[in-house]
């Protein structure tokens, strides 16, 4: 099977948001890498810079008005191999956790919310604070979205442990704290990437708020999902209607004489209680019934 078919299948499969996000980021990076290199050989490197400019988020609001799409495109665009490598690794590791416990749709909404929050904080800081008002910049990279997912995972499952090379077992709440402190330290105006680190902090904040609101029964991601569903339905092929006639109107019984039925959706209060239990005691403390209820909720959201 070709790579093209593998990519198509990844986008056809339901509940496959994590893989889709990684594929989009990698494809954008590869396009710049494959096309940009020969262009630079021929003296047309300005074309790559021009394309990068029209995908990156500007710090000036007036400039943003001329390319508003960059509020989205910037967090799918990377420059530099290690830039995308570390972002995609963190997205995969921590995204797998959220995908399992909260479902792929909430993972998507958090990724977008983290990117939006990081981008807006970047613009605000560069236009309101004296240390930045005399400067301008362009923002690219998924770091704000990824840090939102990292902090969300650490807020939901603070005692979950990763085995780090050369270090050993470390609870993810300490990994998230270290990443946030690093972003805070390098958000200084003298830093070469102050704007990027400011965006990281915006993403981290939204990740924490997202989980806290979810535990209170409020899903911040619903507006994001409503927008994505709208555009998805625009391009979805509608099935052709087929009229059939039958004299039998009753439900078809199964072999055991009972009708098929889907399991009932778990109550939101019950899901919140399970999430609180995971946060305090870990996923392993859940009973088989509680794990099943959490799985049902993640499949239906």
TrEMBL record:
<keyword id="KW-0812">Transmembrane</keyword>
<dbReference type="GO" id="GO:0004252">
    <property type="term" value="F:serine-type endopeptidase activity"/>
</dbReference>
<dbReference type="GO" id="GO:0006508">
    <property type="term" value="P:proteolysis"/>
</dbReference>
<protein>
    <submittedName>
        <fullName>Membrane associated serine protease, rhomboid family</fullName>
    </submittedName>
</protein>
<dbReference type="Pfam" id="PF20216">
    <property type="entry name" value="DUF6576"/>
</dbReference>
<feature type="compositionally biased region" description="Polar residues">
    <location>
        <begin position="246"/>
        <end position="261"/>
    </location>
</feature>
<dbReference type="InterPro" id="IPR046483">
    <property type="entry name" value="DUF6576"/>
</dbReference>
<feature type="transmembrane region" description="Helical">
    <location>
        <begin position="194"/>
        <end position="211"/>
    </location>
</feature>
<dbReference type="Pfam" id="PF01694">
    <property type="entry name" value="Rhomboid"/>
</dbReference>
<feature type="region of interest" description="Disordered">
    <location>
        <begin position="282"/>
        <end position="301"/>
    </location>
</feature>
<keyword id="KW-1133">Transmembrane helix</keyword>
<feature type="transmembrane region" description="Helical">
    <location>
        <begin position="140"/>
        <end position="160"/>
    </location>
</feature>
<feature type="transmembrane region" description="Helical">
    <location>
        <begin position="172"/>
        <end position="188"/>
    </location>
</feature>
<keyword id="KW-0472">Membrane</keyword>
<feature type="domain" description="DUF6576">
    <location>
        <begin position="267"/>
        <end position="300"/>
    </location>
</feature>
<feature type="transmembrane region" description="Helical">
    <location>
        <begin position="107"/>
        <end position="128"/>
    </location>
</feature>
<feature type="region of interest" description="Disordered">
    <location>
        <begin position="246"/>
        <end position="271"/>
    </location>
</feature>
<dbReference type="InterPro" id="IPR022764">
    <property type="entry name" value="Peptidase_S54_rhomboid_dom"/>
</dbReference>
<dbReference type="InterPro" id="IPR035952">
    <property type="entry name" value="Rhomboid-like_sf"/>
</dbReference>
<feature type="transmembrane region" description="Helical">
    <location>
        <begin position="21"/>
        <end position="47"/>
    </location>
</feature>
<feature type="domain" description="Peptidase S54 rhomboid">
    <location>
        <begin position="67"/>
        <end position="211"/>
    </location>
</feature>
<keyword id="KW-0645">Protease</keyword>
<dbReference type="GO" id="GO:0016020">
    <property type="term" value="C:membrane"/>
</dbReference>
<feature type="transmembrane region" description="Helical">
    <location>
        <begin position="71"/>
        <end position="95"/>
    </location>
</feature>
<keyword id="KW-0378">Hydrolase</keyword>
<feature type="compositionally biased region" description="Basic and acidic residues">
    <location>
        <begin position="286"/>
        <end position="301"/>
    </location>
</feature>
């Amino acid at each position: 099977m070709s790579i093209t078919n593998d990519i198509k299948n990844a986008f056809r499969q339901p509940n496959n948001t994590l893989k889709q996000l990684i594929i989009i980021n990698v494809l954008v990076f590869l396009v710049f890498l494959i096309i940009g290199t020969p262009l630079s050989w021929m003296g047309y490197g300005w074309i790559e810079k021009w394309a990068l400019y029209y995908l990156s988020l500007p710090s000036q609001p007036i400039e943003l008005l001329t390319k508003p799409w960059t509020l989205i495109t910037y967090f799918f665009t990377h420059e530099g191999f290690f830039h995308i490598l570390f972002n995609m690794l963190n997205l995969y590791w921590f995204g797998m956790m959220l995908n399992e416990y909260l479902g792929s749709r909430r993972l998507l909404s958090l990724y977008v919310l983290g990117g939006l929050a990081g981008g807006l904080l970047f613009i605000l800081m560069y236009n309101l604070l004296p240390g930045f008002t005399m400067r301008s910049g362009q923002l690219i990279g998924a770091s704000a979205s990824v840090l939102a997912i990292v902090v969300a995972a650490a807020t939901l499952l603070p005692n979950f442990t990763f085995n780090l090379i050369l270090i050993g077992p470390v609870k993810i709440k300490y990994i998230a704290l270290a990443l946030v402190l690093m972003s805070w330290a390098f958000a200084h105006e003298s830093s070469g990437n102050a704007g990027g680190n400011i965006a990281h902090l915006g993403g981290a904040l939204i990740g924490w708020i997202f989980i806290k609101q979810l535990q209170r029964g409020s899903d911040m991601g619903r507006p994001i999902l409503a927008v994505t569903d709208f555009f998805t339905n625009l391009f979805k092929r509608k099935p052709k209607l087929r009229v059939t006639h039958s004299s039998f109107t009753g439900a078809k019984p199964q072999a055991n004489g009972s009708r098929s039925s889907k399991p009932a959706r778990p109550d939101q209060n019950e899901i919140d209680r399970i999430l609180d239990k995971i946060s305090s005691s870990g996923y392993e403390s859940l009973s088989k019934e509680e794990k099943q209820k959490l799985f049902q909720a993640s499949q239906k959201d």
